[in-house]
Amino acid sequence: MTTLGIIGAGHIGSQVARVAVANGYDVVIANSRGPETLADLVAELGPKATAATAAEAADAGDVVVVTVPLGKIDRLPVEQLAGKIVLDTNNYYFERDGHIEALDKGETTTSELLQRELPTSRIAKAFNHILAADITTDGAPAGTPDRRALATAGGDAEAVEFVTRFYDEAGFDTVNIGPLSESWRVERDRPAYVVRQNAAELEANLAIANRVP
Ligand SMILES: NC(=O)c1ccc[n+]([C@@H]2O[C@H](COP(=O)([O-])OP(=O)(O)OC[C@H]3O[C@@H](n4cnc5c(N)ncnc54)[C@H](OP(=O)(O)O)[C@@H]3O)[C@@H](O)[C@H]2O)c1
């Protein structure tokens, strides 16, 4: 059985943990303050979930979700994440993260910034353009008319394949944008950001996105 490491146990990390456990994954989840502060969450998640440090979660995960504020991505366990599939939920909020010139100018993407921190990890974008609460409430079985779709991006075929399978298990169709360098199309303030859309609508919204919003 696949173990999902989750670094970040806030709005998104806890929701991804819930869908993972519901779909049979083992979960090892971490925050910045320490495993003892996650007792309530792991109690809710049940026996398939444990709390750990970020390094332990990275080490334990066959696949690891990084879901911390963008301003904190320079504090990740780089060594334990080396060579692993890493799902990147990050978004850029200058109000929270401080201004990052290359993002303001549309010269890079949040996922490429994470790739720079984790040079050998196999990164794919995931769950960045859905409100956390919707992750456990808006999914539907494959084939449901008007099923909600979510985007991924990444240069590693296995990483993109994992996201596609995980989205499907969580109840969402997938639209693959292409390489991480194209993931700006689903970043904040673009038409596809945090709106409910099916696969055709998502593809259309990605196509009309402007590089600098
Ligand atoms: N909220 C949403 O609806 C939403 C939707 C899509 C994408 N996103 C994006 O996803 C990311 C996470 O968002 P969120 O809303 O889940 O944030 P959040 O609720 O503020 O949670 C952030 C989590 O990251 C942990 N953390 C921070 N630095 C860490 C470190 N160095 N090592 C381990 N854990 C660390 C925090 O732990 P402590 O509490 O112990 O500090 C906390 O558990 C952000 O980039 C956000 O923009 C959010």
Structure commentary:
- Strands 3-2-1-4-5-6 form a six-stranded parallel sheet, sandwiched between helices.
- It has one domain (3-207): 3-Layer(aba) Sandwich (Rossmann fold).
- The protein is α/β, with parallel strands linked by helices and 213 residues long.
- The protein is built from nine helices and eight strands.
- The protein has helices spanning 11-22, 39-45, 54-60, 78-81, 94-97, 101-104, 110-117, 157-170, 199-207; strands spanning 3-7, 26-30, 49-51, 63-66, 85-88, 122-125, 149-152, 173-176.
- Strand 4, helix 4 (78-81) and strand 5 (85-88) form a beta-alpha-beta unit.
- The longest helix has 14 residues, at 157-170.
- 32% of the residues lie in helices and 15% in strands.
- Bound molecules: NADP nicotinamide-adenine-dinucleotide phosphate.
Characteristics of this structure?
213 residues; alpha/beta; 9 helices; 8 strands; 32% helix; binds NADP nicotinamide-adenine-dinucleotide phosphate
Average of the residue pLDDT scores:
98
Question: Structural class, judged by helices and strands?
Answer: alpha/beta
* Annotated CATH homologous superfamily: NAD(P)-binding Rossmann-like Domain
Largest beta-sheet details:
6 strands, parallel
> Which term fits the overall shape?
globular
What is Rg?
Answer: 16 Å
Q: What is the count of DSSP helices, taking H or I runs of 4+ residues? A: 9
What is the N-to-C order of secondary-structure elements (H for helix, E for strand)?
Answer: EHEHEHEHEHHHEEHEH
Oligomer: single chain
CATH class: Alpha Beta
Indicate how many domains the architecture comprises. 1
CATH arch. level architecture: 3-Layer(aba) Sandwich
Q: List unreliable stretches of 5+ residues.
A: none
Compute the separation of the termini in Å: 41 Å
The distinct bound ligands, ions and cofactors come out as: NADP nicotinamide-adenine-dinucleotide phosphate
CATH topology name, in short, is Rossmann fold
Helix content: 25-40%
Number-wise, the strands total 8
Strand content: 15-25%
